[in-house]
Design brief:
Blueprint lengths: L5 H7 L10 H14 L4 H13 L6 H12 L7 H7 L3 H4 L2 H14 L3 H10 L1 H7 L5 H16 L2 E3 H8 L6 H9 L3 E3 L4 E3 L12 H4 L8 H12 L2
Antiparallel strand pairs: 1-3, 2-3
Helix pairs in contact: 2-3, 2-4, 4-5, 4-7, 7-8, 10-14
């Protein structure tokens, strides 16, 4: 994801970020993130902060967009949690907000089949995520990263279910080739070489420009969740 416009960055880094007259600018920045593949957690937290100060200005569509943008940062990022801290419970109880929180819970607990089912059966949620540039690709990158770090082999049937691609699809074959996995067509098993250092190779979308450091425990717990599902 690219960074937002420098003019907005300057506003965010000044006292002007607390000026409600700039809220429209920050909301438009959220829309640009949806349409242009940009990202700014600072902008999004400022929007949520202003909503908490001026609740009558709350735009639930923008809140949904902010949460969905934070989901695809990955389970090792604290962005989603940081956003929910800024959202009052009364807003979190909105049905459309609750389903996004549920989506994140399914992703972070590695219940990928349930996550895809939620997206397929909920038209409103699906229409929201499909407007976000690269949403599905980012979700699949997170799943691929998890599989790469937690499995030495996996059946094509299971991988197909996790990624929501047909077993014989070109997309699945491309993923296997891209990750240098080895497909045994006779028994439909994919062998996954052990990463040299999985903790240092965290997907850039999930942990961009950050050192894992204290998140190592989170990482290990995350892999345990995946292995137990």
């Amino acid at each position: 994801m690219t960074q937002v416009d420098q003019k907005i960055t300057s506003l965010l880094n000044s006292a002007s970020r607390y000026d409600v007259s700039n809220l429209d600018i920050f909301e438009n920045c959220v829309r640009d993130q949806i349409n242009k593949g940009q990202y700014s957690i600072l902008n999004n937290l400022v929007v949520l902060l202003q909503y908490s100060i001026y609740p009558k200005r709350t735009n639930l569509e923008i809140v949904q967009d902010i949460l969905l943008l934070s989901i695809i940062r990955g389970p090792l990022s604290s962005d989603f949690l940081s956003c929910t801290y800024q959202i009052p419970l009364s807003v979190q109880n909105d049905p459309n907000i609750k389903q996004i929180i549920q989506l994140n819970d399914l992703l972070t607990s590695c219940r990928y089949a349930n996550m895809w089912n939620l997206l397929k059966t909920n038209d409103q949620l699906r229409s929201k995520v499909e407007k976000i540039q690269g949403f599905y690709d980012s979700i699949r990158d997170i799943i691929i990263y998890s599989v790469n770090c937690s499995h030495s082999c996996i059946s094509t049937a299971v991988l197909s279910e996790l990624l929501d691609f047909p077993k014989d699809s070109t997309e699945l074959k491309n993923i296997i080739e891209k990750n240098k996995w080895i497909l045994d067509s006779a028994c439909e098993i994919i062998r996954i070489p052990l990463p040299e250092n999985p903790i240092e190779n965290v997907d850039s979308n999930a942990n961009k420009n950050k050192s894992l450091g204290s998140n190592e425990v989170i990482f290990k717990n995350y892999l345990n969740l995946l292995s137990n599902n």
